[in-house]
Amino acid sequence: MGDSDGLRQRKTNGKANIVTISEEGKKLDQKLDQHESYEFGGPFGVLAIMTGFPLLMYYLWICLWFYDGQLVHPTSVEDIQPFLGRMWAHVREDASPNLYAWKVYSGNIFFQLFLAWVLPGFMQEGLPVPSLGYKTLMYNCNALVSLYATMGTAAVLHYYEIFRLTEIIDNYGHLMSVAMIWGFGVSFGMYFIAIATGTQMRMSGNFIYDVFMGASLNPRIGPVDLKMWAEVRIPWVIVFFLAVSGACKQYETLGYVTPNMAFMCLATWFYINACAKGEECIPQTWDMYHEKWGFMVIFWNFAGVPFSYVYSVVYMASHDPSKYKFSTPTYVILYTTLCTAYYIWDTAMAQKSHFKMQTQGVYTFRKTFPQLPGNTVKNPTYVQTAHGNRLLTSGWWGWSRKPNYVADWIMSLTWGLVIGAATPIPYFYSVFFITVLVHRCGRDFERCAVKYGKDWERYCKVVPYKFIPYIY
Fold this sequence. Notes:
The protein has helices at residues 23-32, 42-66, 80-94, 99-118, 143-159, 166-170, 172-197, 207-213, 226-233, 235-254, 259-277, 286-289, 295-308, 311-317, 328-358, 403-417, 428-452, 454-462; strands at residues 7-8, 122-125, 136-141, 220-221, 224-225, 382-384, 390-392. By secondary structure, the protein is mainly alpha-helical.
């Protein structure tokens, strides 16, 4: 049974193998849906993040593009003002939100929204949402067909020289500025819309903190869930096409594509294709189920991910290949590491999502390319909680509480290793990412301890390692 808002009242049909939330669990969920304490250092902490991170993005880009990847700084106290003047000049001249950037970036936003709205997809039911009375939301998972429609459109436009893909990397700074404006605009806009429509929840009462954390949980435009749309369609599409643009630029200027740039094309395609082919698994995640849609998520999807994760591409597109050329065995190790980490990440994510689907009575899963062996745990073991949920303890999840995080981080590290020691800046992704993962893991475990109580302690004894088996 459903309604016009895409809500469904989940039917258990009396089956014992389908999870139902206990009354005790509902009380705990209600507690978790209340604001009790500040995160990220509270209002001052989130304000520092909202102002500091965009400045850091500009600084790292300037160092890569104009200073040979070196971390420049004032040479003396007297040089501080001239240094800031030089930095501003780079932003003003090479990162202004020009007409080209507005057309390309905004065009992609509206094109992706159009595809998400009109293309057919796989209908997936999400988890019961406590704030919706444990009803579930339906998601039209059409990211895969949207991705290949985007790739086909881009290829045609590039072939007929209507839109040259090489121009994307050349306008990196301009596009980044427009992305930031979109990130801030959508973040504040969604806050005010939530307040105006009365859909805000878990509010602290502090304006800037609530803008950062978000006000609404599941904002939608027609059939499109904006939070899931933005998580898949915006950042990783841009990341992939930045890598493709870098490859096109190399081919036009050098007559070939380096193994390093080809590596980044493969790595970014792995990620966007995995997100698209496994889109039906995303409604089962914490991001969809609990995390609100605020600046923390919005800015990161619109600007942070696409313009701070592929610094290696920016460096390679602006430097001679001799600066980052490796031996053949090194390339073999690099590619093997990427593929191995990807396999673990992909199958770990699929195992967890398929297990959650099984608890809802879903046993037939979507078949999209590539379906890797081991993506579903047969006869899974789990800890049954008094809350009603089940905690998976087999497959990759029997070795570590966060095996997906470990594999994901290793992939991020290879995105820096692909340029060796030429510059430290591409390693920003992996350094920042491990910080985010550790922090997020702490947030997750803290909530689980509250939500599951003694059952969480029992689970931690069964799966004692947080990340790396036998180490940590």
